[in-house]
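ok so for the tutorial part 2 we go from a plain amino acid sequence to predicted structure tokens. step 1 is just haveing the sequence, like this:
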Amino acid sequence: MRNDDKRAAGGRRMMLAAPFALLLAGVALAVPPQVGPDTAAAAPVAAAPLPWSQLNRQQRDFLQPLQGQWDSLPPQRQQRMAGKVANWQRMPPEKQARIQQRLAQWAQMTPEQRRQAARNRQRFQQMTPEQRQRVQDAYARFQSLSPAERHLLMQRFRAERQRAGDGTATPPQH
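step 2 — the prediction. this is what the tokens look like for a chain of 174 residues:
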């Protein structure tokens, strides 16, 4: 295989895999850990569980997608998320909607899907800026496709992954 062919195949592979990695990374990023002046130097303190009933109305409304799982979340995550609601509500409506959509997606994920999302997020953060930009560009191209084209591309990607059996499928050559 010529170098140009290898590069093209790698680019197609990246284009197919990138949207899924970004989707999962984006879900994982819905509530990123925050480090600020009040948390940077603080020693880890065991947070007390925050019952759903103790959230105020705005917090319950915003975090509603997580209501069914709230009690199973780690107390530190409960505290952090409840504290973020005021910040999220000051964001433009489209950003608020995106956060709520990601919370809803996260709530629908299985524990294994959440672990995979965390691994994808970690891999994305370890990429060079150029690699991250290529993934973001591929994701933007994927998003610009019609829903039918995206569906077809996802079907092809899943079929190739199944054929490869190890999750490293290459896209079909054209």
